[in-house]
Amino acid sequence: MKTMLITGGAGFIGSHFVRYILNTYRDYRIINLDKLTYAGNLDNLIDIVDSPRYEFVRGDICDAGLVNDLMQRVDLVVNFAAESHVDRSIMGAEEFMKSNALGVYTLLAAARDCGVERFLQVSTDEVYGSLEAGEDPWTEDAPIAPRNPYAVAKAAGDMMARAFAITYGLPVVITRASNNIGGFQYPEKRVPIYIANAIDDIALPVYGAGTAIRDHLYVTDHCEAIDLVLHKGAQGEAYNVGGENEADGLSVAEKILEYLEKPRDLMAHVADRPGHDMRYSLDASKIMALGWKPKYNFEEALRLTVEWYLGNEDWWRKIRDSADYREYYRRQYEDRSADDADRRR
Ligand code: NAD
Ligand code: DAU
Predict the structure, then answer these.
(1) Which residue among 55, 100, 128, 260 is buried most deeply as judged by most CB within 10 Å?
(2) Are residues 129 and 114 in the same domain?
(3) SS3 label, residue 157
(4) Is 126 in the active site?
(5) Alpha carbon nearest to ligand 1 atom 36, residue
(6) How distant, in Å, are the alpha carbons of 17, 50, 101, 128, 132 from that of 144?
(7) Among this protein's residues, is 125 annotated catalytic?
(8) In a domain, 296, yes or no
(9) 31: which strand partners?
(10) Among the atoms of ligand 2, which is closest to the Cα of residue 277?
(11) Which ligand is nearest to the Cα of residue 17, counting in written order?
């Protein structure tokens, strides 16, 4: 039996990964360490909570005492815990610096002191900055050049993980993935906001001209990639995880409206995100050489995601009806433009 510490396992990707590992490895035990911020949600794990191979610990990855205690009991570490939303980091980045930078350091130091077998840092394509149209996709050797507060904090964690591999010989691996979509994604990210708004006939806020490009990855494809890199990746190396699914903002909105049979004029252009990164694009040939490739293209991934939100209205309505969420939505969208993104048709 091996024990894996998964941090941030009550969030979107982390909860999929907890489920994936329990189903894939019958001889693995999981400790899920999660602070349960606004984004952490135990409803995401209802189906596995009674598994004898699963233990939940509520706590902060910045808490060195707690982290050291847990680290004594584990063989493998996968760190998802982070503040993950760019728009919130623009409102204020203190929590981002704590969790995404100091928290990673705290985990790495404990992992070094306890001699864990493997440590995987879940990083992001945002550490590379922004590409212009026509520029080649990033390889793992592209300069780390983050441009927004979230991405800077993630880059600090990414580089610290690499430094621990170089300096202390800690068996670290790093993944840098593109935009994940799928069920259980908190409705502050673009795709779940658009689906929920469209279902309720509320306008879909499109930042700026809607020309920014993102690569999209179905969340279970990301879980498989992390599993592969954790077990087969070369020590100290980073691996891009991209779906080869680039799409701009307008086409994401159009496709969601099309699937839900809603009119195109539900789209509302609003003020752009300050410092908006205009294009992310990954060269994923390094992880593909290890044997990974995405199973879902953009259309399939988006359709599965729309179906999940249609089938799980209770999950997202509970969040959307909460006072905290309403306050966030008001702060984020109310004054964005003359195009009232909250307008009901
Ligand atoms: P999420 O916001 O849905 O979940 C984050 C989880 O971490 C929550 O459960 C939260 O409670 C927990 N958490 C936050 N700070 C913590 C702390 N200090 N201690 C313990 N737990 C804490 O995020 P997500 O979208 O699932 O992203 C997970 C990871 O993957 C993040 O590291 C993110 O940077 C990275 N990532 C996300 C994407 C994406 O498209 N969502 C793409 C690439 C990489
Ligand atoms: O690329 C990986 C990153 O993807 C992860 O590291 C982040 O944790 C994750 O949040 C995501 O970041 P983005 O900023 O790309 O995701 P978001 O859903 O916030 O925005 C996607 C695109 O949609 C981006 O171009 C901004 C735009 N957008 C977003 C929102 C929330 C809109 O046009 N309207 C919106 O309301």
Answers:
(1) 100
(2) yes
(3) helix
(4) yes
(5) 124
(6) 26, 41, 15, 5, 16
(7) yes
(8) no
(9) 5, 55
(10) 25
(11) 1
Regarding whether 104 and 198 lie in a shared domain, the answer is no
Q: For residue 241, is pLDDT > 60?
A: yes
H/E/C letters for each residue in 245-296?
CEEEHHHHHHHHHHHCCCCHHHEEEECCCCCCCCECCECCHHHHHHCCCCCC
Ligand nearest to the CA of 153: 1
What is the residue whose two structure tokens read 């982290």? 67
Active-site annotation holder among 34, 125, 227, 277: 125
Looking at the structure, tell me whether residues 16 and 92 fall in a common domain: yes
Q: Is the pTM of this model over 0.85?
A: yes
- 145-157 confidence digits (pLDDT tens): 999 999 999 999 9
> Which candidate, 223, 219, 225, 217, places its Cα nearest to that of 291?
225
150 is annotated as an active-site residue: yes
Q: How far is the centre of ligand 2, averaged over its atoms, from the C-alpha of 65 (Å)? A: 34
> Measured in angstroms, how far is the CA atom of residue 276 from the centroid of ligand 2?
9
- Are residues 126 and 236 located together in one domain of the fold? yes
For residue 324, what are the domain limits?
A: 190-213+247-277+301-344
